Amino acid sequence: MFTQTLLYDAILYVYALSLLFYFSDFINASRKAKRIGAGLLIFVWILQTAYVTVRTVSHFQLTPVSSFEYWLWFSWLLVTVSLVISRFFKIDYIVFFVNVIGFAVLALNLYSSTNSGQSPELWKTTRELLYVHISLVLCAYAVLTIGALFAGMYLFLHSRLKSKQWTKSVRRLPSLEMMERYMDRAVIVGVPLLAMSVAIAAVSLIVEGRAALLLDLKVLTSVATLAMFIAFVYQRAAQGRPGPQMAWLYIASFMMLLINLLSNYVSRFH
């Protein structure tokens, strides 16, 4: 059982890493990121196949098929289908979104069996969820804050270049292209981390039987922040908006992130 738990955790971590590389390809059309994401996804499929086989063989004769096995097979099937699409049909965006769903199913399924467990086990599970949530959201805040600094520097430099004000501070700044690239990289890392932290927070509330807190101000502002950064991703990847517009959108999204942080003082979530 302990080995199976470690294997399941390894699948989740490698799956999340694969999604980060696919997300990078989604924004910047990076062939290198796509290859790494595809390689990690194949590794996920191998690990998941091994886990599904062990789980099915060890439980088939003892208990009937549970919802855990059902959703486990469903997630494995999504990964398999996405690999087939990636290999034969070359529809990149659908591969990314199918695996976002597959990861969500796999992550939620990990905690589906805790509802029938004893209260100490439930408390231990929710505590571990809280640790993971805090780690992810702190990393997301840090990365997105750095991205906001680059967005502010981009707007400052753009205004100075537009007005032809060549000062010492302007000469010491990186180029517009470099700041735009780092701003995009902050989103590539920060948005998936923020999305996973929000999902884990929602799962922990449901597991603890506190689903009513999903309407708490902290949760609502977190979802609004995530939605604004997703809008940034869409405008960058699909619409190809110019740099100054994207920098302003990033600043607006970061302002929502600040509101989310300030909501801690009036929230009942933490």
Explained architecture:
The chain has 270 residues and is mainly α. It has two domains: 1-110, Four Helix Bundle (Hemerythrin (Met), subunit A) (Up-down Bundle); 117-270, no CATH class. The protein has nine helices and no strands. The protein has helices at 2-28, 31-60, 67-88, 92-110, 119-162, 168-172, 176-207, 217-239, 243-262. The longest helix is centred in the middle third of the chain and has 44 residues, at 119-162. It is globular and about 70 Å long. Residues 114-119 have low confidence and may be disordered. This is HemX protein.
Keywords:
9 helices; globular; mainly alpha; Four Helix Bundle (Hemerythrin (Met), subunit A); 82% helix; 2 domains; 270 residues
Q: What is the helix/strand order? A: HHHHHHHHH
Task: Please identify the structural class as seen in this structure.
Answer: mainly alpha
Give the averaged pLDDT, no decimals: 79
Main β-sheet description: none
Number of strands: 0
Structural domain count? 2
Give the strand content: under 5%
Quaternary state reads single chain
Computed CA radius of gyration, to the nearest angstrom: 21 Å
Q: Name the shape in a single word.
A: globular
Residues in helix, %: over 70%
Which residue ranges are poorly predicted, with pLDDT under 50 across at least 5 consecutive positions?
Answer: 114-119
Keywords: Membrane, Transmembrane, Transmembrane helix
Protein name: HemX protein
Question: How are the secondary structure elements laid out?
Answer:
Elements: H1 2-28, H2 31-60, H3 67-88, H4 92-110, H5 119-162, H6 168-172, H7 176-207, H8 217-239, H9 243-262
Helix pairs in contact: 1-2, 1-4, 1-7, 2-3, 3-4, 5-7, 5-9, 7-8, 8-9
Organism: Paenibacillus harenae
Domain Cytochrome c assembly protein: 71-264
Pfam families: Cytochrom_C_asm (PF01578)
